[in-house]
Design goal:
Largest sheet: none
Number of helices: 6
Strand content: under 5%
Order of helices and strands: HHHHHH
Mean pLDDT: 92
Number of strands: 0
Radius of gyration: 21 Å
């Protein structure tokens, strides 16, 4: 007979996968090709930027009670709030980084608006061109991949794409998300 009374047996329990990791695994299934991934690194941020610009261009009633700050309230703000809330249900770290990204994009949108006021093209037109060109790039990437885009199965994957890219950056620097 063996005496195992003093020895503790280590049992390792596998942690259940988090919802965000399940989404990333599913998203990755149709993003294996190197060219498609490269196209996504370019086009996904451009789509997010242009969509935010397009939605921000939709006329919104001026909220006079906010004074000079009323002009900062637009449909784009609602898009930001909705998306950041969704991201926060998956990962507070990813939500915070996406908030920083959309704040940067918002600054660029205000610069494009100022350019328009100085005689440049309208924000909606610039964003529409970027949006269409980026989606063409995305579909070319998926044609090369040979798999349909994930969002065709579940629209949530339109929101997963941007944080899927961010998670690679975080993993590279060993930052938990």
């Amino acid at each position: 007979m063996q005496n195992t009374g003093n020895k503790k047996q280590a049992t390792v329990k596998a942690e259940p996968k988090r919802l965000v990791d399940i989404y990333f695994d599913k998203y990755a299934e149709s993003h294996q090709n190197r060219t498609n991934k490269t196209i996504h690194w370019i086009c996904v941020p451009l789509i997010v930027f242009s969509l935010l610009g397009l939605v921000s261009s939709i006329p919104f009633p001026h909220l006079a009670f906010l004074g000079q700050y009323g002009s900062y309230i637009n449909w784009g703000l609602f898009l930001i709030v909705f998306s950041i809330y969704f991201y926060s249900t998956l990962s507070s770290t990813l939500a915070f980084i996406m908030l920083l990204v959309v704040l940067l994009f918002t600054c660029l949108i205000y610069e494009l608006t100022a350019w328009h006021l100085a005689g440049g093209p309208a924000l909606w037109l610039v964003c529409l061109v970027i949006f269409i060109a980026s989606w063409i790039g995305q579909f070319i990437g998926h044609k090369i991949e040979g798999k349909k885009p994930s969002f065709l199965d579940d629209l949530k994957f339109l929101l997963i794409g941007p944080i899927w890219l961010i998670h690679f950056i975080l993993k590279k620097y060993s930052i938990r998300y």
